[in-house]
Amino acid sequence: MQIVAFNSSPRDNETSKTELILQKFLEGARRAGASTETIYLRQYKIKDCLGCFSCWIKDLGRCVQKDDMAELLFEHYLKADVAVLATPIYYMTMNARMKAFIDRTLPLMDPLAEVGPEGGHPYRYEKVPKVAVLSVCAFWDQSMFQPLSLNMKMIFGQDLIAEIYRHSSEALGIPRLQPQVDKVLAAVGRAGEEVVREGKVQEETMAALTQDLAPATVMMEMAREYWTQMVEQAGHK
Ligand SMILES: Cc1cc2nc3c(=O)[nH]c(=O)nc-3n(C[C@H](O)[C@H](O)[C@H](O)COP(=O)(O)O)c2cc1C
After folding, report:
1. How much is the average pLDDT of 73-102?
2. pLDDT per position as a tens digit, 67-78
3. Is 162 helix (H, G, I), strand (E, B) or coil?
4. Quick check: pTM over 0.85?
5. Of 31, 60, 199, nearest in space to 129 by CA
6. In a mutational test of the pocket of ligand 1, which residue from 8, 133, 137 has the highest number of ligand atoms less than 8 Å from its CB?
7. How much of the chain exceeds pLDDT 70, in percent?
8. For the chain, domain boundaries
9. How many angstroms is it from 88 CA to the middle of ligand 1?
10. Which atom of ligand 1 is nearest the CA belonging to 167?
11. CATH code for 2-211?
């Protein structure tokens, strides 16, 4: 199985929590025998979709624009057995870079193919990847992922095989929480293995992966302490 991960965080790999969770997931996938590749969307030029439908009318299945999405990333997406779409939560959903990437996969769709009762467009390509979505958010509640989850389910339907959502992302590096963090990261690795071996993540793994690191009141206090310290260090009063 060939897994291609697309990480849309703008942060460097040492800072990005999307990257932390993504790489644990991919480590697990490799343990189960998959080959993996990570593409950092911040390194590429991805223009916004023009909405011209040229990919449906003129140059069928190809984008009219000249940029890294049309000339490189689209092919990488197509060659994957599983594409991992890894995005930080920005304002309750995927960030703009991931949205631009998904919008630019419109050439995959065929407007003439038969449409199901709920609408939508089938693919024009014979082989398109299954999709696993992976996301992190700073707040300490799993409900933060509801809009993204609904969005991804509606976009990918049956092709969506896994959703890996980790809250309290910015607390993953706090030393005193490391015993719980280690359990979470081990569960993320197991999720990667299960996706390769079983095509889905087991419920126990998901429960371990989404477990709280501390009660909400403690998380809130730690967040306040962190930001106070950051503001003070920056020299503001
Ligand atoms: C513009 C912006 C919007 C954000 N919106 C949310 C949000 O709605 N909910 C949340 O829990 N965290 C939110 N965050 C926090 C990020 O999800 C969090 O810092 C995450 O770790 C970023 O991922 P990264 O480290 O891979 O870049 C936001 C961050 C930014 C910069």
Report:
1. 98
2. 999 999 999 999
3. strand
4. yes
5. 199
6. 137
7. 99
8. 2-211
9. 6
10. 11
11. 3.40.50.360
